[in-house]
């Protein structure tokens, strides 16, 4: 399957994309650890089948020195021993916030309590927006059939600074 459409090559698409990027910059400027942001983005992208985003976030984690075992176990984080309790809470929020149509409850009270235990209000705001933004990005790229494999780590650093 070939890519369908380049949103950034379209004037309106690029304009909207810049505003989208500004929200992501604000999330990156929060006190959430960059590795946690990438882990959450990787997990949601795996669930949504976004090849471009799985490629990007796995490569960003590797480039930041994240051990391969942690990158490789994101998809099976519940059955691993390499994630902190705070990371597990964030990954649970990412999964439940991504799979809302799969469960009547959306994000469970149990998961929300774990998030409240490990993160302050500013970090929670950043996490909620992070889950929403990565899901939106996944949908944009899956709809347009943007493929994974060509991402270069650091490609978005200029936007984030």
Automatic annotation (TrEMBL):
<dbReference type="InterPro" id="IPR004675">
    <property type="entry name" value="AhpD_core"/>
</dbReference>
<dbReference type="InterPro" id="IPR003779">
    <property type="entry name" value="CMD-like"/>
</dbReference>
<feature type="domain" description="Carboxymuconolactone decarboxylase-like">
    <location>
        <begin position="20"/>
        <end position="96"/>
    </location>
</feature>
<protein>
    <recommendedName>
        <fullName>Carboxymuconolactone decarboxylase-like domain-containing protein</fullName>
    </recommendedName>
</protein>
<dbReference type="InterPro" id="IPR029032">
    <property type="entry name" value="AhpD-like"/>
</dbReference>
<dbReference type="GO" id="GO:0051920">
    <property type="term" value="F:peroxiredoxin activity"/>
</dbReference>
<dbReference type="Pfam" id="PF02627">
    <property type="entry name" value="CMD"/>
</dbReference>
């Amino acid at each position: 399957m070939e890519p369908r459409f380049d949103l950034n090559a379209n004037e309106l698409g690029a304009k909207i994309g810049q505003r989208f990027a500004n929200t992501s910059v604000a999330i990156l400027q929060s006190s959430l650890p960059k590795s946690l942001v990438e882990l959450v983005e990787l997990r949601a992208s795996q669930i949504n089948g976004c090849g471009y985003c799985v490629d990007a976030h796995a490569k960003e984690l590797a480039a930041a020195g994240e051990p391969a075992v942690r990158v490789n176990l994101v998809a099976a984080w519940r059955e691993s021993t390499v994630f902190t309790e705070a990371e597990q809470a964030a990954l649970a929020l990412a999964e439940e916030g991504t799979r809302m149509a799969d469960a009547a409850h959306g994000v469970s009270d149990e998961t929300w309590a774990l998030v409240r235990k490990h993160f302050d209000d500013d970090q929670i705001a950043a996490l909620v927006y992070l889950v929403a933004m990565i899901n939106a990005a996944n949908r944009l790229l899956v709809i347009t059939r943007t493929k994974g494999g060509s991402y270069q780590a650091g490609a978005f650093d200029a936007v984030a600074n």
